[in-house]
Each structure stands twice: as C-alpha cells, then as structure tokens.
Amino acid sequence: MLSYLARHSSVFLMLAAIVGFIFPSLSTAIFPYLPYILFFLMLLTLLGMNQNALIKAIFKPGIWRYALIHSVLLTVISCAIAKMIGGSSAFILGVAGVAATGSLFATPAIARSIGLDALEAMAMTIASTLAMPVVLFFNLLIFQDDGFQLDMVSYIQRLLIFIAGPMLFSAIVYRYVPNPLLLRVHGKISQFTIILVFAFPFGLVGTFRNVFDISLSSGLFYSAVGLGLTVLFFAVGYFLCRRPNDIDSALLAATAAANRNVLLTYTVAGSFLGPEFVILMGAIQIPTASLPLFVRWLKPQLLKRAQQNEPVSNL
C-alpha cells in the first residue's frame, strides 16, 4: 500500500488538497498537528541524505544564488506586483511572508518522484530555509506597520526548534549510528516522507475554504492570487536557473521555488504576519500540489522541443 501511494504520489498530493478543500472541518481538525508532522518530515528527509555529499552541495555558489532568487528577488517582484494592483498593507505583508518562505522539506521527495536530483533539491531547500529567517525579519520590518515589535526570544526559540533541531539531530545520528544500519532503517521508512507531505495541502487548505463560504468573490480573488504566485515562482525559478542543455536543473529550481514551506513560516512568525498570510497560505495549496503532475507533463515536452532544436550533425 505504501509503495503504491509513493509511486502515485503526484496524483494523491493534488487529491489531498482537493479533499481538504471539500471537507474544511477535517482540514481544520488536522491543522494543529501539522507542526509536529513538519518536524518529523524535516528530520526523516535529512536522515535520508548522504551528509558529506549534502554539505558539499550546500557550499556550491549556484545553490546560494538560487537562495537569493528564491527569497530576495521573488520578494521584490511579488511585493511590487501586489503594490501595483493596489493591495493593502496587510495583503502585501502576507505576500512578503510567502515570498520569504523557504522550499518545502518534501521537495527532495517530490523531485525524486518526478525524476529530478533529490540531493540538489535538498541543498536548495536547506539554503532557502537558512535564508528565510533573515529575509523574513527584514520583510517584517519593512512591511509591518509602525507599531510592529518582533518578539526576538520567541522568534529565535522557534527557529532553533524547527530548523536547527532537525539538522542537529540528524547530524548526531549520522555521527554515532553506523551508515549501513542507518541506510537499511531509512530505506524502510523513506516512503513515509512523501506520504507525510499529503497532510500539508490537506490541513492548510481548510482556512482558505472558509473565505469561499464567507464571500465567493473574495475566494476567487485569493484563488487567482495563489495561482499567480505559484506561476510566478515557478517561471522565475525556471528561466533564471536555466543552464545550456540542462532542462532538469531548470525544472528542479522551478519546482523548489514554487514549493513553499509556509507552515514553517507560520510556525516561526505567523502571529506577526496577519490574517492575509493565513489565507494565502491556503490559497497556494491546490496549485502547488498540482505541480508534480504538471512537471511530469512538461518535462517530456521540453525535452522533445530541445531535441528538435538541436543542430543536425554533418556526420
């Protein structure tokens, strides 16, 4: 059963978001447990990676260029667009919170499921997650009102628990547990990582459904915003990270840029980001959950086009 769910994870990820939208009471019921699921998802994902290879990948300059695009550049672009369409200060703050958010820690599992490099996806995820606290802090200072005061003690405590905690624990495990044993154990539980991801679109979309129940026009507006943000993040990641004859790298950057760990941002600073962020957090779930299926369709199209554009050899 687990192997079947893992093989068809792209379909079930999208279905989880749709089911959560249809049954908002069930979605709302699971929401309080999502931070605990997030912690274990981050931990299991890190335990499944070769630590030495991962550290080398993280220190590649291209990974940190990606992190700047993911957090800083996309904050500037998305907030500028939000300002141009006449968004309120609360709306722009919500957009800034989403733009500062690092990649979802399930991105390596998602990348693996669609045939992309899981190790590089993990390096992108860690880099964007490490950049998130700094970018988010400045976004809060810039876009919050004059009366804003960030509780640094609470902020740092949450960062330590939900970011440093899993990283430190996985490093300790790798230091003291023999690698063969660790790989055998992780091989048996690795399928849980992609299945744990189903909980996030299911549990985060319920509050967004409540907007529809209150006002259909508001629900449609935020749906358009959620889709627009997902498309923007995907397109910027793809076009700015393209390499000659390397479609996989561009698709990986696009996928990592569009998959946002908004629950981590909410857990760390949700009380400072306001209600608009909570709505946007739900609004991006269905388009984000649909990305793996879209990439599965898009990748062969891009490969076919690239082959057609290759110069014909004289030999």
Automatic annotation (TrEMBL):
Protein's UniProt name: Bile acid:sodium symporter
Any coiled-coil regions, as ranges: none
Transmembrane segments: 12-31, 67-85, 91-111, 123-143, 155-177, 189-208, 220-241, 278-298
Record's keyword terms, sorted: Membrane, Transmembrane, Transmembrane helix
Highest taxon of the lineage: Bacteria
InterPro entries the record matches: Na+/solute_symporter_sf (IPR038770)
